[in-house]
Amino acid sequence: MMIRKYISSDCEQIARLFYETVHSVNAKDYTPEQLDVWATGNVDIREWDRSFCEHYTVVCAEGELILGFGDIDKTGYLDRLYVHKDYQRRRIASALCDELEKAVNVPVITTHASITAKGFFEKRGYNAVREQQVIRSGIALTNFIMVKKI
Questions:
Q1: Which residues are CB-neighbours of 42 under 8 A, at least 6 positions away?
Q2: Spelled out in words, what is the top-level CATH class assigned to the domain 2-149?
């Protein structure tokens, strides 16, 4: 396994990883209806690629297989952090998060953590500032605004 910078040709595999992970790993905390609006399976690849290229984005890969990915912007907003559904609990998220946190020179890192990811971020020293409801296609999704002082 190696952590490397994102390249545009990773985007389609990342989109599949995102969909499959949300619909399996997050299924214990969200309803099927919530999962369907969170990860529709219709990612705009060009838009995601543009976003990944604007942010500092890394992937964890084993050969050609992407095991996880994450991105952070220059303000310290950790946008996405996902690990392949078949590679959970192997410290991949921790390795990705370590790389993302050290890539920005900011006093505070912020993320919007799912119910599923909240405990992971708490173990890393993030504190929940507040719970919020994000509305997608009329469906409410609970997540937590979390911060970590660097």
A1: none
A2: alpha beta
Count CA atoms closer than 13 A to 35's CA, side-chain side: 16
Q: How many Cβ atoms from other residues are within 10 Å of residue 74's Cβ?
A: 12
**Six token digits for residue 99:** 């790389």
Domain boundaries, the chain: 2-149
Which residue reads 């990612």 in tokens? Answer: 43
| Number of helices followed by number of strands (H, E) in the chain | 5, 7
User: How far apart, in whole angstroms, are the C-alpha atoms of residue 119 and residue 12?
Assistant: 29
Q: Residue written as tokens 């020293």? A: 125
**How would you write the pLDDT of the chain (150 residues) with one tens digit per residue?**
999 999 999 999 999 999 999 999 999 999 999 999 999 999 999 999 999 999 999 999 999 999 999 999 999 999 999 999 999 999 999 999 999 999 999 999 999 999 999 999 999 999 999 999 999 999 999 999 999 998
**3-state DSSP helix/strand/coil percent for the chain, to nearest 5?**
40, 35, 25
H helix or E strand, kind and range, residue 119:
helix 115-123
> What does the block give as tokens for 126?
């993030």
Q: Is the pTM of this model over 0.90?
A: yes
